[in-house]
Amino acid sequence: MKSKCLWLCLLAMLLVSAACGESDERKAQRAADMVAAAEKHYGFGEFDKVAELCDQAIELDGSNSKAYALRSRLRARQGKFSEAEADIRKWSELAPQDPQSLVALARLQSSLGDDKAALESARAGLKLADGDTTTKGWVLWFRILNDDEKGVLQEGADLLRADKYCVPAHLAVSESLARRGDLRNAIQEATAAGANDPAGEEAFLALGRALVESGDYAAARKEINTAIRNNEHGHRGRLLMASCEARAGKLEAAQSALESASGAPETLKVPLAAASAEVAFAAGKNDDALKHIDAVLAAQPRHERMIELRAAIRMRTGDIAKGISELDASIKAAPCAEAHVQRCLLRLVRGDLNGAYEDARAALKLEPKRQSVKLAQGHASRATNRGAEAMNAYSVAFSLPPRSWLARAGHMATRASAVKDPAEAELERKRVAEDMEGAISDALGELEQSQNRARDHYGIACLFALAIDMQILDPQAKWNRAARIEQALAHLKKAREAGYDNRAWWDYDPNLAALRDEPQFKQLWQ
Asked: What is the pLDDT of residues 53-68, one digit of tens each?
């Protein structure tokens, strides 16, 4: 009897044990099903449901790494960055061989502005998956965000040949191209990244940055807003929007965007300073802009836009010697194409024509596809009587985004002066005058849709001024001289109001020669 009872007790214990094992297995399966359902809800933007399902899945099965992975994405999107990082680290603990946990951590760190930590995390992930193209791509992306550009373009291209859908490789290539001034291809690569990662933030920020540089501010706004929607608590998007609006001449919108990023973490101090510099410059607050520019250049000495802004302020205030001295130091410490471009322009204003040409050639060697480089080459070649080289440089500059009517004006003016035979020169001058009419018509036709209004108004003013200069010998054209002067001055006034008020350049620019003796030209600065 006792042995029978013992046998029954053992059997009951076995049954209970088996039942408990089946229960754990069922819980794990139910948790997995919940995570799969949560993934679908995430795709539909039903985030409350995602949170509920992830919490339930983790309660059922605390070892489900996918539940932590998905919840970390949700929490990052909601601005719960500390909780998101805790989930990622738990994910990494549960799946120590999964490189994607470290990639997710890197993306979170970068979103918060800590690109150095992001690179370290991505490299740690690469050690777990040396052959994984996506992880390699993220390492390249974070390298370039840390200003380590050497070899990135080629390595990114190699990765894309192996995996054409590799989002971070597209991003790295896009950023590298943009920094070289190849904006068309940069936009194409960033667009490809966004198509393959529509819920991400990085691709739309990269596309937004390239579009801002191309002068297409309307398109840039659209992409930046997508980045902000994809990471509503991120600050990078708001800072980029502030820069975009400032460059578009929408000062109130720029200040509003900057204020919305006032809670940015310390790790975003450089992007915050850059956006603040843009807004201060647009507002004409030169001292404030310089303070922010210096903060950016202390951390990133090759920051092209800040170099351009600082030189523009020196041109605006007429402190040419100071501007050249600053660029001398910049080029000595960290040579870059934009520094040579800006020193070229300042040297032209000062009358150092050969020095300006040397700078244009140096910039050309560094970044031959940057529009500002081709414009500088055109200006310096024209000033040193290299007509053919100037015309070619201006032609290339006009073909690159953003559309530059200043380049068109320079090309036409150089063309008119390139002919040496007096009789042929007069005929060519008249032909250019006729072509100038078409250029003015095209420029005015595009102005309504223009996003880069300050520079466009200036370029159109140059076309009008050159039209006066070209037609001054034609008795039939004298009747419209006063009207053309009035139109040129009206566009100069609009250019200045929109922020293109580099007075020293206006006083130098040979395109404006026909206006300088006009009283109204001098009154623009009173």
From this structure: 999 999 999 999 999 9
